[in-house]
Amino acid sequence: MKKIVFIAFLLAIGAAAGRAQESRQDISLSGTALIEPFTASSTNVQVHSTTAYGALLSYRFMLTPSSALEANYGITYQNKLNYYVNPNHYQVPVRTQEISAAFVRSFYFRKFNPFVEAGPGALILLPIRNSGLQNIDAKQQTLIGGLYGAGIAYEISPSFDIRAEYRGFVTKVPTFGISQFTTNKWFNIYNPTIGVAYHF
User: 8-24, pLDDT tens digit by residue?
Assistant: First the structure.
């Protein structure tokens, strides 16, 4: 009886070890910065913003050892979009949420794993009702766009890695439902991230 229990115990450990080696999923939590570039338009509107800081939660499912599908949810703390409509200046405090998906292609060099990714996404811009919003009737706006990025993961154990990435998000410059904010331009938003991933 003891031998049977011992063999079952060894089989369970072997199965768990084999499953750990075959980890096909990971989840990561990263700190992010959202940097919207200065934009000037033919409509005499200029837009620039302060940097937003926040967090990004990502889930990857490996299709093959070198390719994966990724789902992302991100949120940033308040930043300010400044609109200069000659001769007036308007400020919109905003909190941004990201919902996106991407195809990820990885490359392996010992403990260093570079990767590239691309896919569709949406940014949800939520104006914050405070004194900075003044008397502007800014409305929530959802921007559809494309995500792209490249980064590197460094394996610190079979279950964890440190992941740093430059991400970009291409979408239209928001107007918040205010016609005089129209620029007819596109943002290429810079979004560097760094965080930790857990493989399971």
Answer: 444 444 444 444 446 79
Structural domains for the chain? 23-199 (2.40.160.20)
Q: How does residue 195 score in pLDDT terms, banded at 50, 70 and 90?
A: very high
Contacts of 117 (CB under 8 A, 6+ apart): 70, 102, 103, 104, 105, 147, 148, 149, 150
pTM: 0.84
